[in-house]
Amino acid sequence: MKKTLLLLTFSFLLTSCAVTLPVNATSNEVGGKVGMSKATGYLGVLWFDQDASIQKAAKQAGITKISTVDLKQTNLLGIIQTYECIVTGN
To answer: pLDDT of 79-89, one tens digit each?
Structure first.
């Protein structure tokens, strides 16, 4: 029983999760430009002036009319969290 519990605990700690969620969509046509902004944090509190905003992603790709906004969240053992904002448009 102890070995099974230890194995389950160990395998849980080695897992990571990545989820991409739609945040917003507009009536603007989907363009060919894609902008991304990213923020990586450690232990949920150390972010070191990161910016994963919609505005930064749109500016990075030169998008003036936003079509869709997606948010990708990645978590590795609860130690490293990454948020990536993906913007498409013209």
So the answer is: 889 999 999 99
